[in-house]
Amino acid sequence: MAAPKIFVLDIETAPIEAWTWGIWDQNIGIDQIKTDWSILAYCAKELGDSKIIYADTGGKGKKQVRNDKRLLQDIWNLLDSADIIVAQNGARFDLPRINSRLIANGYGPYSPVRVIDTLAVSRRTFGFTSNKLAWVAKYTTDQRKSEHKKFPGFELWKECLNDNPEAWREMEKYNKQDVIATLELYKKQRPWISNHPNLSAYAEERQGCPKCASPRVQARGYAVTQSGKYQRFQCSDCGAWSRGKQNLLTPASRRSKLV
């Protein structure tokens, strides 16, 4: 069986335009929305492939910047081909936003895909001062979240909406660096992710690490549960721990245990 296709994905969206009478603590009704959000750009990179995929809505004039229909087919195709999607805040933002634009434009569902959200992993497993990509990547990898110094803050989105070519170049750099930083963070987090999809299931012919599929696993002690004893393993490449599925206690021994 072929190795799973794992993509790191990140999207950038256009803001909602709305009519409002103030700037502080506003509740905006749907009848105050002038223009809804849309996808401005997306970037993806397959694990193990040096190619970085990027596309945006620029270059067709200001009136076409919010038309994300030309991005949707490629995004659908990517998701349909993937086994696993990795994204920072992907479970709560990127995938639901993408799904909203797909169904609104008549697309059916892509094939089932597992989502690994690096933000959720940080919240669930670690206790960093901040779980933002910029902060966690700073302390765990040699990558940094991209900064857009030429167009600081909201200025970058404003100028992309004006279809400024220089701003689009900055957006591409920003989007790509976020994907690279997320990829490196995922690699660091992977051996810590308790519910990570079992990659060794894709390599039927050999035993391998469930987290990274490396065959370089060593037997190290035993995992003991309420009703069984299992061989424990550690990956020599990523460091992840796993255990065998065979209960080493005999049936007679299992029947004699109290729980």
Descriptive tags:
alpha+beta; 3-stranded antiparallel sheet; Nucleotidyltransferase, domain 5; 259 residues; elongated; 32% helix
Overview of the molecule:
By secondary structure, the chain is an alpha+beta fold. The chain has 2 domains: 6-192, Nucleotidyltransferase, domain 5 (2-Layer Sandwich); 208-256, no CATH class. Helix content is 32%, strand content 21%. It is built from 7 helices and 10 strands. It has a 5-stranded mixed β-sheet with strand order 5-4-1-6-7, sandwiched between helices. The chain is elongated, with a radius of gyration of 23 Å. The model has no long low-confidence stretch (mean pLDDT 93).
How do you describe this structure in short?
The protein has seven helices and ten strands. By secondary structure, it is an alpha+beta fold. It has two domains: 6-192, 2-Layer Sandwich (Nucleotidyltransferase, domain 5); 208-256, no CATH class.
Write the layout of secondary structure elements.
Layout: E1 6-14, E2 17-18, E3 33-35, E4 38-46, E5 52-56, H1 69-81, E6 84-87, H2 90-104, E7 114-117, H3 118-125, H4 133-140, H5 155-161, H6 165-189, E8 217-224, E9 229-235, E10 241-243, H7 251-256
Parallel strand pairs: 1-6, 6-7
Antiparallel strand pairs: 1-4, 2-3, 4-5, 8-9, 9-10
Helix pairs in contact: 4-6, 5-6
Query: What is the average of the pLDDT values?
Result: 93
Summarize the helix and strand pattern as letters: EEEEEHEHEHHHHEEEH
Span of the ends, CA to CA: 40 Å
Rg, Cα atoms, Å: 23 Å
Judged by helices, strands and strand pairing, the structural class is alpha+beta
Which sheet architecture does the biggest sheet show?
A: 5 strands, mixed
Main sheet strand line-up? 5-4-1-6-7
**Count of extended strands:** 10
The total domain count is 2
